[in-house]
């Protein structure tokens, strides 16, 4: 009995792993899940976070902001401003739906005293249906400008350390 309980627990754990959202990490290749950044000027970067097909739009946007804040601190700045923001939905479509129907016809001839009779009958009929569902995922693209200016009148500036603390607390 304990074997079945252990098996059920293992299946539940594997199912939880399979349904989890994307890991916060660098992307292993272009357009893969994770973050990338590109320097545009001394204090200006493009930060991209791409999710997988289980990531919510909110998670992808938060992870892009988190990476922007971490990058700001790494480059010895305290604040960043989002100069441009864009979140897109990427459709990853697999093979299109296809249906294959194969049939074969057999011919049978029976001959008797009065002549021959030929009949045709299906030997087989087979149907295959290939259906690959479309996967959609999100990518959040930020162009940020970093600074050490703590001007409180500038409402569009993010405090990088505050962003890191708030987003990491919600992960």
> Which structural class best describes the helix and strand composition?
alpha+beta
Hey, roughly how much beta strand do the residues contain?
35-45%
| Principal-axes shape call | rod-shaped
Distance between the termini: 37 Å
N-to-C series of helices and strands: HEEHEEEEEH
- The total beta strand count reads 7
What is the average of the pLDDT values?
78
Runs in which pLDDT lies below 50 for 5 or more consecutive residues are 4-19, 96-100
Strand order of the largest sheet: 1-2-6-3-7
- Report helical residue fraction: 25-40%
Main β sheet profile = 5 strands, antiparallel
- Helices, by number, come to 3
Radius of gyration: 29 Å
Structural description of this entry:
The structure is a single chain. The chain is built from three helices and seven strands. It has 171 residues and is α+β, with helices and mostly antiparallel strands. The strands form two sheets. A five-stranded antiparallel sheet has the order 1-2-6-3-7. A two-stranded antiparallel ribbon has the order 4-5. β4 and β5 form a beta hairpin. α2 (57-74) packs antiparallel against α3. The two termini are 37 Å apart.
Sequence-ordered SSE layout with sheet pairings:
Elements: H1 2-18, E1 34-41, E2 44-50, H2 57-74, E3 79-92, E4 98-112, E5 115-130, E6 135-147, E7 157-159, H3 160-170
Helix pairs in contact: 2-3
